[in-house]
Amino acid sequence: MNESIVELDQKYIWHPFTQERTAPPPLPVARALGASLFLEDGREILDMACSWWVNVHGHSHPKIASALAHQAATLEHVIFAGFTHEPAARLAEALIKALPRPLSRVFYSDNGSTAVEVALKMAWQYWRNTSTTNRRMFLAMQGGYHGDTFGAMAVGRTSGYYAPFNDLLCEVTHLPFAPTWLGDTACEEREALALARIDEVLDRHGHEVAAFLAEPLVQGASGMNMCRPEFLRAVVERMQARSIPVILDEVMTGFGRTGTMFALEQAQVVPDLLCLSKGISGGFLPLAATVASQRIYNAFLGDDFHTAFAHGHSFTANPLGCAAGVASIKLFDEEGTLERIARITQSNRAWLAEVANLPGVTRPRALGSIAAVTLGTDVSDYHAEIGAAVKAKCFARGLLIRPMGNVVYLMPPACVSPEELKRAQDGLTDVLRETAHLYTR
What we know:
Elements: H1 5-12, E1 29-33, E2 36-39, E3 44-47, H2 50-53, H3 62-72, H4 86-98, E4 103-109, H5 112-129, E5 137-141, H6 150-155, E6 172-175, H7 187-205, E7 209-214, E8 218-219, E9 225-226, H8 229-241, E10 246-249, H9 264-267, E11 273-276, E12 288-293, H10 294-298, H11 319-334, H12 337-355, E13 361-367, E14 370-375, H13 386-396, E15 399-400, E16 407-410, H14 418-439
Parallel strand pairs: 3-15, 5-6, 5-7, 7-10, 10-11
Antiparallel strand pairs: 1-2, 2-3, 4-12, 8-9, 11-12, 13-14, 14-16
């Protein structure tokens, strides 16, 4: 007798971010289309988390699928040291044209964590290639999350995910983040306090800093914490005034998520290094890029290998992923993706105005396709048990909502219809009412 997919899974697979002893059996997905997942038993689930924030235009978009199929029949992969190919070159061209100068060079890798790791290594080696050895400190924002490799864990130490590994992580100085939300009247005061603290750190250690790293406008995994563009710009200007390379992690915020193609546009800042992944391939394949300024790139040029960047991955610039990326970027113009996201923003803000009046719901916040609230307290708590209850009740209504503890959010793909979004908003509102007793005690 053949074993089911779930039986095989539970026999052989170890899932991410899962306590395997207590987790319910995984759900077998048979196919996906648009904003919906379809399970083996025929149930339709609205994907309001963009499948871990990677899906931009909707599942199984025919134009990306067609580009991928064509590429698979032409060139599936080739070593990227000493070779190149059209999808990699075309995607790099599209990225650079979409980004401000002096960002000018694309280094490909495999996922968001490696894109951050690459940026940290580039910043570190940049100083050594320019005969500066005292720059040994990294600065990052309190609460930021940047991935699960060791450098990325170090700069994201304060996100609350890495307790078992703390003794293995390099030292990073974390700077205060100044969050804001809809109806917030004290954000400028918090920003002034945070900037004063940042000035103190820079006055003492600015000459030792190798790079500064931040998620622009939205700290995703630590609870969809949002800041004003003015705050980010003030921080970046302080770094650049001291010649500290700025790394912006747009792994989650890139490709329309915040309402502009890249979040940096709203803050009117240009980093020295930019990390991209998740939406870069439209959600089809693992792919990442670290985009460098010409100044950073030039420091690695030399007459021998000693100054070269000795880093790479087996699947660097995979032609399939790059072809999907080219097709995805074209869709922004062809389908008016940013206009679609603007309509989602408007709808989400109206919904937040409604749920903000529910008991225990605090800090309503929205940007681009993201809408979030915190339950029961003003503090985000990834380990809060309420998240599991909300997730289960939403799933019973055919909604994939994946809370981060007591932070509940909507992040639909751009293709979501007004009716689908309304269904998700109404369903989540009902769940928040039903579970209020769990976080208003």
